[in-house]
């Protein structure tokens, strides 16, 4: 569902003032791809929309009342939409209350139970703190797509527009809220245009749910862990473990203690093997334990119900072969005596994961593969949170003996694995080289076997994994995971490499802990790091990477980087007073509010900004500016800031293992290419170069003291110079129209005016920039006219 209230420009709608003018609905049977009901409820008349049922009402009261009847009649199991939980549903309920619409709030399946709005805050490690509205609609599950995306996907922007572009490669038709009331107050045709937009907004969440297989995946998780579907959105990991524990405890006639348990102390975590940093132009095989912590708990029967102490051992007269002592010194009874609940829960979760992994292997569609990978990952996380549950300091049932035993086993095992590899694969034992573990984290080892081909590394990797697995108790299993070739090992948790799972072709370039995904940095950083890594790893041309980095730095300092690459975005999550230190995006939001309260970013928006040049020592948070404002007012960018605060660290990081610390710094950040800056006037932005006042000759740039287009010396070439500037105009116009078409196409809109003002789309900035360049170039060419050309 999707509803449109009238929004006065830039003001968030308020249910006691702003009417609901349309509600669009799509109803689909789970498993089918297209809805069997498509309708839209409109206030005032609306021209027909092919394929959709238009129902028009003359009063808002009637519209709302009939819509509530529709909800009861169609009797859906799941209600979805984009931000329905915090926006549409509460809005409709409040509006209906305000208008005193009778019987509106009976939206659920239990007679006479009203749907009411409550506020709630949830806090979790995974999500941070979020304030949400909660509405009871008995018998129907609310699955808000926005909430699902918040949980399952890290995205740069969560606007429906950006999201549908990201997953469906199409953008929705955006009707800018400033024109909604004009459209509503127009005629049946303009209201039809609103309806079309509204219908499209209603179907998008369904299509996304379908594409991302959300209902199937959530359903499976709910079944496996035994929690209601909605808990998966509203609650954390712990509730799933509790639910499974209750399920198993009941089977064995056990009760779970309800009183608060003392959390116990911190305990030691996992081992990270000290990295042997460098650029490896040879295959590196990675071995990793499959579901390590869960399999440790299963192998050694670790559970609340199997934990022993000396007293019980004495009292029960247990003999040494009946229990084990973990590396952390804790005692547990063996499975043949009594099988723990946790190992059983884990078996169940891991068999579901195994099945998901098998489905993944069968799938050929790359997008579905991603979704299935998401499913097996969710099950992996659920399995790992069983361990997390026992170690949670503020948990319902912490048990230090279990959690510290798990990590102690883990530490011991990775150490042993490293030794097995290095002791077994030696020249002495008949292999061509001495193997070396160059890095490892928690349950994985990166092995340099010294061989030259991916194939040989895979063979040794498989062999080693199988051999080492036999050294541990079942179901513990070391697996050959992949080969990295080449491999750039930067530091603990930071590396990149080409990732091979077959000897013919690498699967992907894999980067860990590097700035290759854009979130808080500007796109320039991610793009440059990606390009350099591609040169280093794919082209195996580290020198080319260095050259490319230098060239980009030089482009940056000479203002040749497009502004869309320099836009940084940060979410405005708190009000000004709540931030302890001044922040660039918050300051900007405040300044924009003063300029124009209507278009200023609101709480929850991502604020795009660039850093502009200012007097020396101006704090960075004062130099943030709206990219559009920068374009429109020809404001110079602080290129030095971008070099020092955005590019330099990530760049040095990837080049240090190749060039060495000293050379990386001197070659990348201090070379000739960084001096180009002094050749340009540093105050003037790139797009200003031509657009300055009528002060220099268009031909040779010599300063002029009159308004002429060219100087005396260039006068004879004036026609030629004019032609050149005209062709620049032509080129810009062509570029503009290409970008324009692209925006139109991606909006799927054939309206003459492109309405998209999506500030999270780089095309938008490019289009704006070209538009600005075109205006400037136009002005420049006019100088020829003014001087009697
Ligand atoms: P991984 O090797 O990432 O996970 P895994 O061994 O459970 O699963 P896989 O079969 O995919 O290798 O991490 C090793 C251990 O680190 C894992 O068993 C438990 C711990 N861990 C957590 O506690 N929480 C987590 O979110 C992750 C990823 C790991
Ligand atoms: Mn593992
Ligand atoms: Mn691992």
From TrEMBL:
One MF annotation (Gene Ontology) recorded for this entry: nucleotide binding
GO cellular component, one term: delta DNA polymerase complex
EC numbers on record: 2.7.7.7
Domain DNA-directed DNA polymerase family B multifunctional: 227-658
Top-level taxon: Eukaryota
Domain DNA-directed DNA polymerase family B exonuclease intervals: 9-163
Entry keywords, A to Z: 4Fe-4S, DNA replication, DNA-binding, DNA-directed DNA polymerase, Exonuclease, Hydrolase, Iron, Iron-sulfur, Metal-binding, Nuclease, Nucleotidyltransferase, Nucleus, Transferase, Zinc, Zinc-finger
Chemical reaction(s) catalysed: DNA(n) + a 2'-deoxyribonucleoside 5'-triphosphate = DNA(n+1) + diphosphate
A family per Pfam: DNA_pol_B
Any one of the GO BP annotations: nucleotide-excision repair, DNA gap filling
Domain C4-type zinc-finger of DNA polymerase delta span(s) in chain numbering: 697-767
Required co-factors: [4Fe-4S] cluster
Protein name: DNA polymerase
Record organism: Dreissena polymorpha (Zebra mussel)
Top-level taxonomy: Eukaryota, Metazoa, Spiralia, Lophotrochozoa, Mollusca
